[in-house]
Design brief:
Length: 355
């Protein structure tokens, strides 16, 4: 009996050249000068090929917020205390968080997945309990997680996508919540991109200049501590295990699983983009399935987007996480689809075509 490889070893499907061509042809006959709807045109064409339908739609949007704590908080790398992660889980399901408001506004489904908080929380309605451990280990002094924990996080991402697919999701947004996760994400990006901590560490939730210097020093120590392991062959996975967070790994798993389920992904801010970077290093074909919603105010995000060759749709100086930047870009995707699907053609409207 041959065992199939784990889902993160399977390449995502490629986009149908026929549907891409059909989409381009449709855009060319709509009543507008060619190219005049700018990036909205390609957005609709790509969504059409991703969804394998000539008339794409993003009416059913699934937002999943993966939450977890980080041992590296012991180094004083965040402006906020660790208990905020658990407190925000309650806020998400009580409807008071920014992403709760945005999800309601969009008519999107919001799911919260608890991957493990420092002070374990009781089970409650509206929270998927998928605790791996009460947070990661301190990545400055030890591997953030074991291989088994990494695999559990990847599978938690896949399971969330399976629930989204069963609910008929037409677009997947992966959000995150984890005090300390800009340090873990910066560490992962430094290792994957071979960049110095100075170019990827930023204020996160609001560190001052002294705080950022401390964060940079912690990142230097972490990269030194893990330098032999992260140079190994299976790099994206060892980097995620050594330096990442449960929610970062779950996002990477979710993005890969979404592509395999042919669900387009709208990527949020710095942390989500680092997860996308690790996942595309594992499976380069994932890039065809990702739309980048915004450029966060977290300074390292620009570097990560450049490495992904991504030009995000919005620059609003947001730096919240939770999937909030991605949710903010959903109306653009909806408008791109409405224009593609509903505009009259030159022929139908009896309008003369240009050259
Ligand atoms: O998405 C972003 O670009 C982003 C930028 C800065 C901070 N965050 C959020 O802030 C938290 C991490 O910040 P910190 O300072 O605790 O590392 C975490 O819950 C993220 O969702 C998110
Ligand atoms: C209040 C608060 C809300 C958040 N949402 C995502 N990260 C966050 C960090 C803090 C501190």
């Amino acid at each position: 009996m041959s065992l199939s490889p784990p889902f993160w070893r399977q390449s995502p499907p490629s986009l149908s050249p026929d549907l891409l061509k059909q989409g381009r042809q449709r855009q060319a006959c709509l009543t507008k000068p060619a190219g005049s709807l700018g990036r909205l045109e390609q957005l609709a064409i790509t969504l059409s090929a991703q969804q394998q339908r000539p008339r794409p739609a993003v009416d059913r949007v699934r937002i999943v917020v993966f939450a977890a704590d980080h041992g590296v908080c012991a180094e004083g790398v965040s402006a906020f205390p660790q208990e905020v992660t658990g407190q925000m889980i309650a806020n998400f399901v009580n409807g008071g968080a920014a992403i709760s408001v945005l999800a309601r506004h969009l008519g999107a489904e919001l799911e919260v997945v608890n991957l493990g908080t420092a002070h374990p929380l009781p089970a409650r309605d509206g929270v998927v309990m998928a605790e791996i451990a009460p947070g990661t280990a301190n990545l400055a002094t030890a591997p953030a997680m074991s291989t088994e924990q990494l695999q559990a996080a990847l599978h938690a991402g896949q399971a969330a996508v399976q629930r989204a697919a069963e609910a008929g999701a037409e677009l997947f947004i992966g959000g995150e919540m984890g005090i300390g996760n800009t340090t873990a994400s910066a560490a992962v990006a430094c290792a994957l991109l071979d960049l110095a901590p100075e170019s990827l560490a930023g204020p996160g939730t609001g560190l001052d200049a002294d705080g950022i210097r401390r964060k940079v020093a912690v990142l230097h120590r972490a990269l030194q501590r893990h330098r032999d392991t992260v140079a190994e062959a299976d790099q994206p996975l060892t980097v995620l295990a050594s330096l990442g967070g449960f929610e970062v790994a779950a996002l990477a798993g979710a993005f890969l699983a979404a592509a395999q389920a042919r669900i387009p992904v709208l990527v949020d801010g710095f942390i989500a983009s680092v997860a996308a970077l690790a996942a595309t290093r594992l499976q380069p074909g994932l890039a065809d399935w990702l739309h980048f919603a915004h450029q966060s105010a977290e300074p390292g995000h620009a570097r990560v987007l450049a490495a992904l060759d991504a030009d995000p749709l919005l620059r609003l100086d947001m730096r919240l996480g939770e999937g909030s930047g991605a949710a903010t870009a959903v109306p653009l995707l909806r408008q791109a689809c409405a224009l593609h699907n509903q505009m009259a053609s030159f022929q139908d409207a009896g309008i003369s075509k240009g050259q």
